[in-house]
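Chapter summary example: a protein plus beta-D-galactofuranose.
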Amino acid sequence: MLKRISTLVVAGLTAAALAACGTGGSGGSGGTEGGGSGGDSIVMGFSQVGAESGWRTANTKSVQEAAKQAGITLRFSDAQQKQENQIKAIRSYIQQKVDVIAFSPVVESGWDTVLKEAKDANIPVILTDRAVDSADTSLYKSFLGSDFVEEGKKAGQWLVEEYKDSSETVNIVELQGTTGSAPANDRKAGFAEVIGADQKFKIVASQTGDFTRAKGKEVMDAFLKAQPDIDVLYAHNDDMGLGAIEAIEGAGKVPGKDIKIITVDAVKDGMQALADGKINYIVECSPLLGPQLMDLAKKVVAGESVPARVVTEETTFTQEQAKEALPSRQY
Ligand code: GZL
């Protein structure tokens, strides 16, 4: 197809340009050829947040494998958690005249301009994993991902149940996800809504750990020095919780006992710590969005209507449930 040939030429030039200004990130903007018939396959431009956590690694694997299975040609870029890199990647995909753009917005705000450019170029956009706060929902065809407010509520509900027979004050520290991101905003809100019903729960410190293990350890070290009496840690993902465990043990305390820990995601390392009793409860957030994303992409490119919102199925795990689930965990 003529469009395809011109696209490939532009893609080559654009890829070089992206590499030159270093915005290709570790994933590069090179194509992962789909398993389809080459020239006739759908071309998807995908801008990934980064590689900050075990969840993200599993999500990238799911998207890349599902593209291959679906015969979709994937052009993948890793933004290294920088919004400007995602905006550059989306503009590059518009120049390449891809058939569809999908991305996980690192933060909620600041997308209207580039999404309008995609709309003006008649390239449909699908949000996956995280949401944007654009008032104009015509800027994207669908949002596939978890209900993060619900995840925060589940974390809060476990804590309320855990302390239902106590009237003592419960001092909580919170490791928030990336500042401005939908999961950080919504997991914080859902948790606060549930525990706010009982005055004994007090969030004595709350700070971002940017969803990484290293930052989670660093911030938890600071919490331990500043807070004389911490009963609970609520971490917005497993990776920050695992970093915090290192800090807690370094301070001579027992994670899961001296300080109870609730996290979100349920990646393998988190589930192992849960089974080992170092974490007390995990709210699952599934990264396996690839197959649903590719189904949505095919429908959107074919001009079929798709749901504006697709919420992913997920559950919760106690220590006992983690022991049972670990052997069959995919990620
Ligand atoms: C949630 C996802 C979050 C994970 C983190 O859908 O955006 O980003 O909870 C990841 O582990 O870094």
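Key point: Residues 1-38 have pLDDT under 50 and may be disordered.
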